[in-house]
Amino acid sequence: MVTRRSRAATPRLIVAAAGALLLAAAACGSGAGLGERCGAFGHGTIACGGDDFYCSLPPGEGTGTCRRAGHETEPCPEPMLPSCAAGLTCNRAFTPPACTPPVAQGMDCRNADCVAGLICLAKPAGPPTCEHRRLEGEGCLNADDQCEDGLACLPYADVPEGGVCATPVPAGNVCDDAGDCQSGLMCNAGFSPARCEPLSEVGQPCGSVQDCKTLHCDLIAGICQATAAAPAE
What we know:
By secondary structure, the chain is mainly β. The protein has 1 helix and 14 strands. It starts with 10 loop residues before the first helix and ends in a 9-residue tail after the last strand.
C-alpha cells in the first residue's frame, strides 16, 4: 500500500491564510499599528488601531499604511484625507491646513467639518453655517438634504430658500424630485409642473426613462413606450 504524500501549501493558500490572520487580529485586537497595512484586504477591511493613527491611502488605492494622525494646531498630514486625531477636523482656513476642533453652530463651515449632530447648511445668501437639520415648516434648499429624517423639502415659492420641510406628498401633488413623494411614487417630469405619480404605463406622460414601468420614454413626444424608439436614419 502506497501512502500519499501531503501536498505542500501553495502560495495562494499561504496568502489567504495570512490575510485571514491579519483580519482576525484586527477584529479581535486594537487594529493595525503604525506602519502596518490598513484598508481593504481580501474580503474585509483592516482599520488602524487607536485615535492617534489614520489610514494613508494613495490616490485610487483601497489599501494603505497606518500613519500618525495630526494633533490639535498641527498641520494636517494629508488635507484630502481624514488625517487628524479623533475629535479633530482638517481646517482648510489655515495655511497650511491645520487640525482643529470641529466648527460650532452658527459658524462658517466652508473649510471644516461641523460638530457632531450639525450639518453644513447652505443658504440663499451668505456662507453656509453649521446648523441642525430643518424641522417641519422651516425653509430648505431642495438639493442639499437639509430636512430632518422623514421630511422632504417640498417646493414653496414664498420662502427665500424655495422650499419648506414637510411630510412627503401623495399622488397628484407638485414635486421637484422623487424624494418629495410618498413611497412608491415618482416625481414625473412628463407633467407640467412635475408631480408625484406612480410609474407611468405605456402611452402615459414621462420626462425620463425612470418615469416609465417599461423604462422606455420617447423624450420628444414625452410618452412611455413599450420598447425603445428606433434610431433616426
